[in-house]
Amino acid sequence: MSELSGLRILISGASVAGPAAAYWLNRYGCAVTVVERAPSIRPGGQAIDVRGPALDVAARMGVLERLRAKAVGMRGMSVVDADGAELYRSTERTVSGGDLSSPDLEILRDDLALALVEAGGAEIEYLFDDSIAALDQDADEVRVTFDSGLRRPFDLVVGADGLHSNVRRLSFGPTERFLRDLGTCTAVCTVPNFLGLDHWQVMHQLPGGGLGGAMVMSARDNTEARVYLMFDPETPLSYDHRDVPAQKELVARALAGGGWHLPRLLELMREAPDFHFDAAAQIHLDSWSRGRVVLLGDAAYCGSPLSGQGTTMAMVGAYVLAGELKAAAGDHTAAFAAYEDDLRDYVTANQEMAVWNMAARRAQIADEASGSAEAADTRAAADIESFAKIVSSYQLRPY
Ligand SMILES: Cc1cc2nc3c(=O)[nH]c(=O)nc-3n(C[C@H](O)[C@H](O)[C@H](O)COP(=O)(O)OP(=O)(O)OC[C@H]3O[C@@H](n4cnc5c(N)ncnc54)[C@H](O)[C@@H]3O)c2cc1C
């Protein structure tokens, strides 16, 4: 009989943290159900990075080679002015992935999510197009009511449902209490590769010293492109994070009048098959669990896209959470405390790095835009070194 045989676990969210946790919990003998609000694994999202200890997690899950085969394989980046003239070029780093010589893996979010779901196998139950409506826990179990009306009891509930986590709202309180806005927003969507990019990124920064602008990168072997549209709102935005047309309108208004291909990109955004928009924000909680409910990934400790470490923290967190449950033979109180104890320092270092990255990126932009390639490269090399130290400061332990 497996270590956690019979433990009934519900995970909310099927992106990165959820399927990774499902894999490990199933492997340790739990009966795992994953509920996802979207009708299937959600398409879209930017190229995200699997780094350092998350590469070890992927290897232990047996998916590392598959992920490497799906990696975006960028060769470099250019920075262009409003007329498209090149101001800066690098074949050593990219905006989205950082140092190209590192073993880190950059992959489209949907490719990663699918690989993690498939690694888990058929024993894991997926409930798509549904969401948790109510959680009622006592000393013995958590009684869950779903939006669909389904009611089921579980031993534990894991909230892996992202920055705007539903589980966190139901068990910890309103999002605003835990969310720290970093003052910049990004929209990501898929567009045709109309620039003919070959494993390449092109960035155009708006004047003014902020992070606003657009970046286009080829994707899926140049058959399509992903566009990032960025702006710094003057005051924190208030928007419905599920109202896509309103979000598109916000982006279009913020970037109206921009140069380079911005007008075309905004047009393409309106028809894009996928769209992800959010303010860069972090989640800070005093504790990641409440009784039988525990949070994981962005829901617990979002570092924001500016950390470049959201995916790594989600995958490592999934491995540690499941591993600690196994080590504690299912004693969730001990396991949740150990999970948090083990990861807190790493999370804090990465959240601090996001703030530092934002300042570093502004300085890099100024160097790139001034055509000072040497200054940009020297600064980038120093930033990459500090970043790599933090990424590798956590080592996986065996469970
Ligand atoms: C469509 C999409 C696009 C993204 N694009 C980017 C990007 O461009 N740049 C970037 O830095 N990060 C992006 N992210 C976030 C990135 O994936 C995470 O920062 C990181 O990988 C950690 O993953 P996570 O699993 O903790 O959270 P997330 O990847 O945010 O996943 C949360 C999952 O929970 C689901 N969910 C939400 N609410 C409910 C609910 N009520 N019930 C059930 N399920 C629910 C969501 O649909 C999603 O599948 C994106 C996420 C998504 C879902």
Automatic annotation (TrEMBL):
SUPFAM superfamilies named in the record: FAD/NAD(P)-binding domain
Domain of life (superkingdom): Bacteria
Transmembrane domains' residue ranges: none
GO molecular function terms noted in the UniProt entry: FAD binding
Limits of the FAD-binding domain: 9-330
InterPro entries membership: FAD-bd (IPR002938), FAD/NAD-bd_sf (IPR036188), FAD_aromatic-hydroxylase (IPR051704)
Position of the signal peptide: none
Protein name, UniProt field: 2-polyprenyl-6-methoxyphenol hydroxylase-like FAD-dependent oxidoreductase
Species of the source: Actinocorallia herbida
Native organism taxonomy: Bacteria, Bacillati, Actinomycetota, Actinomycetes, Streptosporangiales
